[in-house]
Amino acid sequence: MSLSLSEIIVVFRQVVVVLLVTMVMLSRCSSGSKCEFKAIFNFGDSNSDTGGFWAAFPAQSGPFGMTYFKRPAGRATDGRLIVDFLAQALGLPFISPYLQSIGSDFRHGANYATLASTVLLPNTSLFVTGISPFSLAIQLNQMKEFKAKVVEYHSGNKKGSTTTKLPSTDIFGKSLYTFYIGQNDFTSNLKAIGIEGVEQYLPKVVSQIAGTVKELYGLGGRTFFVLNLAPIGCYPAFLVQLPHNTSDLDKFGCLTSYNKAVVDYNNMLKEALSQTRRDLPNASLIYVDTHAVLLELFQHPTAHGLRYGTRACCGYGGGTYNFHQVVYCGNTKVINGTNMTASACEDPNNYVSWDGIHASEAANKLTTLAILNGSLFDPPFPLHKLCDLHHIG
After folding, report:
1. CA 4 vs CA 1, 7, 9, 10: distances in Å
2. Distance CA 386, CA 311 (A)
3. Which of 5, 28, 231, 331 has a C-alpha 20 to 30 A away from that of 370?
4. What letter does residue 228 receive in the DSSP assignment?
C-alpha cells in the first residue's frame, strides 16, 4: 500500500523525533561517565577494608556480606562499605585489596586497608595484641612500592599491553585518596589506660595522618578525603566493654565521656589538616565529618528509616545491645557447657550497627549519601561538578 505525501511527512517527522530523543539519551549516558577521578587509593582499618585482611589471613565465614554479596566478601559488615559506595558513585568498580594476589584489578586504584590497622606502628603482632601489623606507615610503603612497580612495568613495556591489571603511570594525579583510620588507635588501649592515657598519644596519630598526606602529595596525589572518627561511645561493643556508670549515659544511651574524647580528637585532626593544607597549595585536602552523620543515626535511627541505634544486628545475648564480648558475630563458643552462637538478625537494613563494632550497609549508604551531597566537607569541595555521580542503590 502506497503512502500519500502528507502521510510520508508525518512518518518522517516521527522518525526524526525518535532519532533526536535517542541522541539526547546517548549524550546523557556518555556524559554520565565523566569524572575527574580515575581511581581510588584507600588507607584504613576494618571500616574500609574490602578484603585485605582476609587475603592475608583467610578465615572469614558466617553472615558477613549477607545483604549485598550474599556471602562473606572480606568486609566487616553485612554488605558494602563507604569506600564501596564511593567507587560506585564515581562510576568505578569496587577497589581491589592490595594484599589480594588472585583476582585483583588495580587499574582503578588499590585498597591498602586491613582489619585492626592503626595509624601508629604497633609494638607487636596481631596474634599477640589483636592489632594488625599493617599500620598506616606500612600502607604508605605499600603505595610507594605499587607506584614504583607501575612505573617499572610501563617503562619495560613501551608498546603497552591490553592484559595488564595495572593502571597507567599518570593515574596517581587523577585519583581520589581516602583515609578512614584511627579508631583502633583510640580504642585498643582505652579499657586498660582510660581516656586520659589515650589522649596522650592522639597528637601523634593526627601528625602521622598529616605526614602521610604530604608524602602522597609527593607521589602525585592532589585530592584527599580524610574521614574523622565515629562516635565510639554509641557502639554496642564499647557500651558493653568500657567501664562506665549509668550517669555517663546520655538520653540516647551513648557514653558521654568517650564521645566527648572523640570530638576532641576530631577537632585536633581538623586543625592538623588545616595546617597541612597551607603547606600543599595545589592540593584539595578535605576533612569529612562522617561523625556527624553516624551520631545522628545512633541518636535518631527512626528518623532515617532505621529502627535500632545502639543494638547490634549480628551478636549474642539480645537485650539492649545484643553483644557478648566472648561470642563475636558468626562465632560459636562453649560457655559453661552451653553452645552459644552469635547469629545475624533477619533485617540488618534496620540497624545502625552490624556487629557491635562496625556500621551496617544501611548506615554506610546513608553516610555516603551525605558525603556525595557535599554537606560533610570542610572546606567545601565541588565533587558533583567534577564527576557525574552515579546512583548507589
Report:
1. 10, 5, 9, 10
2. 38
3. 28
4. -
Q: Which residues, in sequence order, are bridge partners of residue 208?
A: none
Overall pTM > 0.85: yes
Whether the CB-CB separation of 323 and 316 falls below 8 Å is answered with yes
Confidence class of residue 12 from pLDDT cuts 50, 70 and 90? very low
Q: What is the full DSSP assignment across 234-279?
A: GSHHHHHHS---GGGB-TTS-BHHHHHHHHHHHHHHHHHHHHHHHH
Contacts of 222 (CB under 8 A, 6+ apart): 173, 282, 283, 284
Q: Which residue has the cell 582510660?
A: 194
Calculate helix-pair angle for 202-218, 136-155, nearest 10 degrees: 10
Report whether 348 contacts 313 (CB < 8 A).
yes
Confirm whether 46 is a catalytic residue. Answer: yes
Catalytic residue (one of 49, 78, 84, 355): 355
Is residue 108 annotated as a catalytic residue, yes or no?
no
Q: Which three cell numbers stand for residue 246?
A: 549509668
393 vs 21: CA distance, rounded Å: 26
**Is there a catalytic annotation at residue 358?**
yes
* Catalytic site residue from 46, 48, 117, 135: 46
* CB contact at 8 A, 39 and 171: yes
Kindly report, residue by residue over 183-232, the tens digit of the pLDDT.
999 999 999 999 999 999 999 999 999 999 999 999 999 999 999 999 99
The Cα–Cα gap between 82 and 46 comes to 11
Taking only Cα atoms into account, the Rg of the chain, rounded to an integer number of angstroms, comes to 24
